[in-house]
């Protein structure tokens, strides 16, 4: 297997918040990220695909195609947006880097050949990132952790 990674960047605002908690508790756990009007991050997204190089091209995957997929399915929807309010596929999800990695994985896995997606890594800062490799996790989903207090369906 050879592992090939495409890197992309986007800027977005978010608010980390659990409406079942007091404001004090939210601030204690989420710090600056619990700011009522949100705040911004310069995110980095790294997507790794795995496979055997094609004998004719030498590519595991044409990275132009992967770049285009990232642009169409993710970047065009999250760049310069408020992740809690502006992004359909994040409604009802507390937008931590962990949950973003899972949400992005689910989108990309459905668009790539079966078994090709290996890892999705999301950096919220230079020092903090989450990586998801598709193992089952119960935490993402509507009605689990709400992204905001007035979201659709919450
Ligand atoms: Ni934040």
Structural summary, described in words:
The structure is a single chain. This protein has 154 residues and is α+β, with helices and mostly antiparallel strands. The chain has a single domain (2-150), classed as 6-pyruvoyl tetrahydropterin synthase/QueD (Tetrahydropterin Synthase, Chain A, 2-Layer Sandwich). 25% of the residues lie in helices and 25% in strands. Strands 3-1-2-4-5 form a 5-stranded mixed sheet. Helix 2 (63-78) crosses helix 3 (97-111). The longest helix has 16 residues, at 63-78. It is elongated, with a radius of gyration of 16 Å. It starts with a strand and ends in a 22-residue tail after the last strand.
Q: Helix fraction?
A: 25-40%
For the CA atoms, what is the radius of gyration?
16 Å
CATH topology: Tetrahydropterin Synthase, Chain A
Q: Roughly what fraction of the amino acids lie in strands?
A: 25-35%
The structure class reads alpha+beta
Summarize the biggest pleated sheet.
5 strands, mixed
Order of helices and strands: EHEHEHEE
- The CATH homologous superfamily is termed 6-pyruvoyl tetrahydropterin synthase/QueD
Which CATH first-tier class would you pick? Alpha Beta
- What is the helix tally? 3
Low-pLDDT sequence parts: 140-154
CA-to-CA gap between the ends?
Answer: 43 Å
Number of domains: 1
Using the 3D structure, state the CATH architecture.
2-Layer Sandwich
Mean pLDDT comes to 90
Overall geometry comes to elongated
Beta-strand segment tally: 5
Short summary of the structure?
This protein is α+β, with helices and mostly antiparallel strands. It has three helices and five strands, in the order E-H-E-H-E-H-E-E.
């Amino acid at each position: 297997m050879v592992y090939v990674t495409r890197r992309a960047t986007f800027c977005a605002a978010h608010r980390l918040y659990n409406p079942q908690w007091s404001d004090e508790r939210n601030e204690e756990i989420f710090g600056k990220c619990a700011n009522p009007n949100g705040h911004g991050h310069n995110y980095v997204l790294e997507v790794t695909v795995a496979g055997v190089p094609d004998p004719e091209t030498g590519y595991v995957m044409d990275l132009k195609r992967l770049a285009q997929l990232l642009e169409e399915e993710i970047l065009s929807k999250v760049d310069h947006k408020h992740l809690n309010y502006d992004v359909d596929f994040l409604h009802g999800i507390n937008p931590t880097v962990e949950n973003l990695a899972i949400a992005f994985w689910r989108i990309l896995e459905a668009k790539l050949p079966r078994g090709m997606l290996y890892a999705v890594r999301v950096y919220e800062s230079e020092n903090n990132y989450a990586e998801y490799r598709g193992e089952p996790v119960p935490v993402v989903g509507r009605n689990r952790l709400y992204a905001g207090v007035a979201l659709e369906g919450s």
